[in-house]
Amino acid sequence: MIRVALPFHLQTLAGTGSEVTVVVDGPVTLRSVLDALEQRYPMLRGTVREHVTLQRRPRVRFYADGEDISHDSPDTPLVDPVARGDKPLMIVGAISGG
Fold first, then answer.
1. Quick one: pLDDT at residue 94?
2. What are the mean pLDDT values of the chain's consecutive 10-residue runs (98 residues total)?
3. Residue 72 CB burial class (10 angstroms; 0-12, 13-18, ≥19)
4. Residue 41, C-beta contacts closer than 8 angstroms, at least 6 positions apart
5. According to the CATH classification, is domain 2-93 in 3.30.450.80?
6. Distance (Å, rounded) from C-alpha 23 to C-alpha 95?
7. What is the reported pLDDT for 60?
8. Residue 1: predicted pLDDT
9. Reduced to 3 states, what is the DSSP secondary structure of residue 92?
């Protein structure tokens, strides 16, 4: 089980708490976790990644074991603490404005 920490607006949309779990078959990568998340919570499709290109939305960031992996390849294996389910993959909505 992979743990995923969601920001409040995605918790509300998905009707969940601050953390959910997903099952990933095969290598645990950002892409495979997001695929599993969108499969389990279809209402989140298009909120974290673009519908067609599957690119990360501009104001969404991903953190694995405290490291920003937002610009890493989505096919890079996630670090062991996240892949084992010891720590969550964090999805964070960036705050901007002035």
1. 76
2. 96 97 97 98 96 91 97 97 98 78
3. middle
4. 14, 16, 20
5. no
6. 30
7. 94
8. 95
9. strand
CA distances for 84 relative to 45, 55, 79, angstroms:
25, 25, 9
Amino acid, single-letter form, for residue 77: P
The confidence score (pLDDT) of residue 98 equals 60
Cβ-based burial of 95 (10 A; exposed 0-12, middle 13-18, buried ≥19): exposed
Position 97 scores a pLDDT of 64
CB 25 within 8 A of CB 65: no
Phi, psi of 80, rounded to the nearest 5 degrees: -55, -45
SS3 42: helix
